[in-house]
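Researcher: Here's the sequence for the chain we discussed earlier.
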Amino acid sequence: MIASSKRKQKNKQNNFKFIDLFSGIGGFHYGLKSLGGKCVAAVDIDEHANQTYKRNFGIDPTGDITKISASSFPEFDLLCAGFPCQSFSNIGPGGGLKDHRGALIYNVFRILNVKKPKVFILENVKGLEKHNKGETLSYIKKRLVKCGYKTKYKVLSATDYGLPQIRRRLFIVGIRKDLQIDFEFPEPIKIKKTFSAIMRGKTARKHAFTIRIGGRRSGINNRFNWDCYIVDGKPRYITPKECLQVQGFPRNFYLAGPEDKQFKQVGNSVPVTIVREIGKELLKRGIV
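Model: Thanks. This is the structure I predict for it:
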């Protein structure tokens, strides 16, 4: 009880505010709330994800970011954005910033220019690092610097941050230049709950495959298998609830919609523990 009270008091003292753009089911929210952060606005256009978000956090995300003026956002310290990744992925046409989904990052620039928060955390697929021979990421970094931020980026793996899932994502952290504070990405941490523990049986694999955004079953012998595993010597499909856990959410986290929509929501989410460790690093350096 005493330890719990101290933890609550510490979180209350942190008391930083953040906005959650392209909020999905709330991976950023869940990770930062555990550190005492308060979400003051969330934005997403996905109906099922918004239902999930509202049920778990009590916040109803607004819809189309392109129709929201930057000045309408309340004051905040930290901007989070897991902006759409399809146009930067190694799978598909890879339209980059010319694709309407990739171009949504221009709204991040727009909000940063107006609101000037202390810090931002952006997340996308690792393919963004090499997209268009690195020119796309270089352009994004230049725009962020022009917005007034000193930036660092790194591809981080979920397996290095407490989660038994092979999932590598690119994170960009920007600190407002006038703060004159340096940032370093957090050191890896040990896996806290094994894949076998999540699947409730002995798994042949140590780590899960990357959770995909679709709910189509693949099968154990499919070369593109992502959802079937050998558990206690027999093939078994992973469930959305188990996918939640390999992303760092609790098993009882509510998911709206049919199963295929649930897989999509979890597959689109940012790994919670990576967000939490980045948040800890920001707090340690007094940035938020």
